[in-house]
C-alpha cells in the first residue's frame, strides 16, 4: 500500500513517524520549502491523550528527547485574576499522569516539529504545494502539485491544516466558522518578564487575566527542562535542534466588536503595532502586568482569527481520508487541536498497520477511524468552544 500524506504539520509528521516504525511505506508532501515553522504559536499544551499518541508514534529515543526538552513540570495549575491581580478562580483539572517524572505537559512548537522530522529525511518532500487530486480507474489517487509534478498512491491522507486544499476540492462547503474573536500571540523572554516585575505567583503556572474591560490575557511559561542541543546530543544527534531561551507565550483575546478595526486593518498591523495595541488596551491594568508587555518581541507577535468546524463530519468512504485541522479546526483556547491531530495519527497508524498485516480490510479500518475521530473531535471542538464562548460572553456583557 502506498500512502501519500498531504501536509507535514504536527498530525501528518506524527502519522509518518508511526507508519515508518510499523514498516508501512509513506511519503509526506509539504508546501513549505524547509523545516522552518510558520507562525502558529510557540508553546503547545500536551494533554494526556496527546502524550500517549506522541509516544505511540515516536521511537523511544525521540520520546526521550521530547520529554527532555519539554516544559519543566508545572503542577501549580491554572490561576485566574482580574486586571488588578486579585485572584478570582483556581480550577483543578484531573490529570491521570499525576506525578510521573517524565510527564510531557507542554512543549516548544519548533522543537516538537524538528523532533517529528527526525529520521524522516527520506519520507518528507518539501516545496510540494498540493493543488488538486484525481481518482483513477485503477482505484488509486493522484496528487498534483503546483510545480507540475504529481504522485500516485492507494490512499491519500489530507493533513493540510485548517485551510485544507484537499477539503476545498472534496467538500467545499465545510468551511470552519469565524467565532468573532481576534487573538494576538506573542513571545516574551522569561528573564525580561521577571525583571519587569512579573509577580512570583505567575512565574511557573498558566495564568489567565480577565479584564473588566472585556479583554483577556493568557500567560504560559515555557521553561526547557534541558537545552535542546544538549538533549539532542544525548538522544538523537542528527535532530538539528535549535536552542531557545525560556519564554512566556502571551495570548491576548479581543472580541471583534471591541476591536474598533476591521479585519483588513487589523491583519495589516505590524508586530510592533500589535504590541502597542496590547499595551494601550491594558493601560488601566496592574502595572506589574503591563510592564511585561513592553518586553514582548515584536518580530514574534502575530494575530489570528479564531475559527471552528461545526459540526465535525466524516468524509465519504474512499481512498481520501482527513486528519487534524483539515477536518476539525478548533480555537486554541482549549489547547487540544494539536493533541487531537496526534490522536488521529495514532489511530490511523494502528489501523493501517493492521491492514498491511492482513488483519483488517482497508474499508473497515477507515470507517472505524472516521467514526471514532468524529466522536472525540466533536468533544474537543465543543470543549474549546465553551472556553472561547466564555470569553465572548464576558466581552459582550462588559
Ligand atoms: C497560536 C496557536 C496556538 C495553539 N496552541 C495549541 C495548544 O497549546 N495545544 C494544542 O493542542 N493545539 C494548539 N493549537 C492548534 C494546533 O496548532 C493545530 O490544531 C495543529 O497544528 C493541527 O495539526 P495539523 O497537522 O492538522 O495541521 P498543521 O499543523 O497546521 O499542519 C498542516 C501542514 O500542511 C501544510 N500544508 C497546507 N497546505 C498545503 C498544501 N496545499 N500542500 C502541501 N502542504 C500543505 C502546512 O504547511 C502545514 O505544515 C494552536 C494553534 C494556534 C494557531
Automatic annotation (TrEMBL):
Pfam families: FAD_binding_3, NAD_binding_8. Gene3D superfamilies: FAD/NAD(P)-binding domain. Keywords: FAD, Flavoprotein, Monooxygenase, Oxidoreductase. GO terms for molecular function: monooxygenase activity. InterPro entries: FAD-bd, FAD/NAD-bd_sf. Residues 308-371 form the FAD-binding domain. This is FAD-dependent monooxygenase. It comes from Kitasatospora nipponensis.
Amino acid at each position: 500500500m502506498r500512502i501519500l500524506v498531504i501536509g507535514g504539520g504536527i498530525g501528518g509528521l506524527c502519522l509518518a513517524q508511526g507508519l515508518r516504525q510499523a514498516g508501512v511505506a509513506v511519503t509526506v508532501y509539504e508546501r513549505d520549502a524547509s523545516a522552518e515553522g510558520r507562525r502558529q504559536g510557540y508553546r503547545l499544551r500536551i494533554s494526556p491523550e496527546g502524550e500517549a499518541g506522541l509516544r505511540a508514534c515516536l521511537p523511544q529515543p525521540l520520546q526521550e528527547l521530547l520529554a527532555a526538552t519539554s516544559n519543566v513540570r508545572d503542577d501549580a495549575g491554572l490561576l485566574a485574576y482580574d486586571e488588578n491581580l486579585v485572584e478570582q478562580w483556581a480550577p483543578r483539572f484531573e490529570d491521570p499522569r499525576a506525578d510521573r517524572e517524565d510527564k510531557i505537559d507542554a512543549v516548544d512548537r519548533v522543537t516538537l516539529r524538528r523532533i517529528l522530522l527526525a529520521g524522516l529525511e527520506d519520507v518528507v518532500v518539501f516545496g510540494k504545494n498540493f493543488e488538486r487530486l484525481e481518482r483513477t480507474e485503477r482505484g488509486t489517487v493522484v496528487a498534483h502539485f503546483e510545480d507540475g509534478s504529481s504522485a500516485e498512491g492507494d490512499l491519500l491522507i489530507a493533513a493540510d491544516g485548517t485551510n485544507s486544499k484537499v477539503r476545498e476540492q472534496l467538500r467545499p462547503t465545510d468551511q470552519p466558522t469565524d467565532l468573532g474573536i481576534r487573538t494576538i500571540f506573542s513571545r516574551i523572554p522569561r528573564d525580561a518578564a521577571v525583571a519587569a516585575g512579573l509577580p512570583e505567583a505567575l512565574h511557573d503556572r498558566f495564568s489567565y487575566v480577565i479584564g473588566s474591560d472585556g479583554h483577556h490575557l493568557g500567560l504560559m511559561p515555557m521553561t526547557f527542562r534541558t537545552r535542546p542541543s544538549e538533549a539532542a546530543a544525548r538522544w538523537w544527534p542528527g535532530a538539528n535542534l535549535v536552542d531557545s531561551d525560556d519564554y512566556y507565550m502571551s495570548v491576548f483575546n479581543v472580541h471583534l466588536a471591541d476591536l474598533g478595526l476591521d479585519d483588513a486593518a487589523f491583519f495589516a498591523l505590524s508586530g510592533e503595532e500589535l504590541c502597542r495595541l496590547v499595551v494601550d488596551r491594558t493601560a488601566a491594568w496592574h502595572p506589574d502586568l503591563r510592564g511585561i508587555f513592553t518586553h514582548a518581541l515584536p518580530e514574534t507577535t502575530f494575530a489570528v482569527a479564531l475559527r471552528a468546524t461545526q459540526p465535525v463530519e466524516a468524509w465519504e468512504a474512499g481512498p481520501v481520508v482527513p486528519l487534524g485541522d483539515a477536518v476539525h479546526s478548533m480555537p486554541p483556547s482549549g489547547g487540544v487541536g494539536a493533541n487531537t491531530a496526534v490522536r488521529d495519527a495514532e489511530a490511523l497508524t494502528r489501523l493501517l498497520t493492521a491492514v498491511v498485516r492482513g488483519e483488517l480490510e482497508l474499508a473497515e479500518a477507515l470507517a472505524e477511524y472516521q467514526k471514532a475521530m468524529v466522536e472525540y473531535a466533536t468533544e474537543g471542538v465543543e470543549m474549546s468552544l465553551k472556553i472561547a464562548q466564555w470569553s465572548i460572553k464576558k466581552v459582550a456583557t462588559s
